[in-house]
Amino acid sequence: MFRPPMIRFTAIRLAEIAAMLALMSFVIYALIGLMPGDPIDLMMGADPHLTSADVARLKLLYGVDRPLIGRYLAWAHAALSGDLGYSRLFSAPVVATLLPRLGNSLILLGSSFVVAFAASLGLGIAAARRPRSRFDAAINFICFAGVSLPTFWLALILILVFAQLLGWLPASGMGGGGSGDIADRLRHLVLPVATLTIASIGGYTRYVRAAMRDALGQDHIRTARAKGASEARVIWRHALRGAMVPIATILALSFGSLVSGALVTEEMFAYPGMGKLIFDAVMGNDYNLALAALLLATAVTMLANLAADLAYAWLDPRVKYR
Amino acid sequence: MSRQVRLPFLILAVIAAASLAGPLVAHLSGADPSSVDLLARFAGPSATHPLGTDELGRDMLLRLLEGGRVSLTIGIAAALAAAAVGTAVGLAAGYLGGWTDRVLMRFADGVIALPLLPLLIVLAALDLHKIGVPHVLADSPEISLVRIVVLAVLVGWTTAARLVRGATLVTRSRDFVRAAQSLGAGTPHILWRHILPNVMAPLVVATTLSVGDIILLESVLSFLGLGVQPPLASWGSMLSNAEELITSSPLLAIYPGAMIFLTVIACNLLGDALLRRFDPRDAARA
Hints:
Structural class of chain A: mainly alpha
Shape of chain B: elongated
Helix content of chain B: over 70%
Distance between the termini of chain B: 19 Å
Largest sheet of chain A: 2 strands, antiparallel
Largest interface: A-B, 51 and 41 residues
Distance between the termini of chain A: 15 Å
Number of helices of chain B: 12
Number of strands of chain B: 0
Radius of gyration of chain B: 22 Å
Oligomer: heterodimer
Shape of chain A: globular
Number of strands of chain A: 2
Strand order of the largest sheet of chain A: 1-2
């Protein structure tokens, strides 16, 4: 695992990610300035007592009349020393607003990830063992249905059935009421986790099936069968080991996209995670927060991609790094 | 046509034909999808309104067909535009090679590695006047359609670019391309007559699949209020209106969502069936 070429590869990739983040911070900074609304106008709207002299002073203070590059460099300088500014929407420092949200998102994503992965492993392996059977065709169709569902519509229907008609589960929020009531928090997790799981299970199952089909066709599987290994041992010990290489790659990749892909689900269930934070910050003209949250989401996605590459090498010793 | 190709193709053809012809027929017979009838709000199915009416008394069936016209137009236009851009990039990268290839593909990798939905939300929220789009254009009712197509192309071109680059790399060292080169054929001629026909099959599959993806993307953006703007309506924006009324009249939300689902799954099944047809090696393995 920790051979010198591997460390070199990781170091180069981390440097690339840092460069990419620096570039994206400028792009996003510039884009946010092009959104409707103007920070000074917002302050004037919030406080009717502001005089035009105050406005001029504020403009000077925030430097809105300076050229873009100058404002960006001032932001970057502050950001590098750990000051990401103040969130207008939450009336709190950006860092203090972001971190709990990232934690909430990871709870939501982690749960649905575990459920979806376990289910897709079972379904994909079952389908791969009986290729072209009626069972395989049914699984294939369900997978297509899963990837074709609009997430927000699925969420609406789950809310309609389980929260409105049956009244079994809460439709929104995170629960717990600040008291750390675990049972209540779990009840609030059920519907969003179900939504994310149904939305992602189809894609995973297709990958698991394809990877297992490839693995089961290898010579060493025939050898294992010939020497009399049980079918369970052939599947779980011999075939899955080979199949895990592409599966792990896809899982790590999809985890990165999940962080932002959960945006719609979080919005639908009013779940206070990163995705909803990004949406609210962009829609609410909270420039500092939107910028930092988007950069954090970008960093998480790119680190997940790196993790995918490293997992690939860890699971398959034949992979060489240049 | 095999059954796997025929069924999804038929579903798509029926939805497309109804979406194009429905409003026309309705217009000729005097019905108007945007005519408000506040006395007939939330009406159930009847002879005049087969699927009932919505919160403003508009005919649900006509509204669905109108929404289908908008959603399908965006899906197909954006998929074709993304395929065209991706093909141009992929041909350039694959045929020219060298630093052109490296720069273009690094750029594509960079785009793929981004969290796209949050960034699209920022792009969809941009003030067009601040970018310098002329007022006449920025304030026209169709601008929301153009905006979504541009956004879909910005994220969608990478798939086609990678596919076409790969196929071009394989094709450009084939004997018939070498022969054309030695006979003095120019680069545009070789690309157009020899390379492009050989990358068409995977390109058609990818474009079919991307129609479904783009319809989903459009519906999400419209649902969030950043996509199709009134007076135009797509299935996604219809759902956005219906969300508040989900408890009292769930059908208003169920119909457009079901149409999105049906259209997207038909695109995906068609793309998959075409893939199996074009690539018998892959089909044998599956």
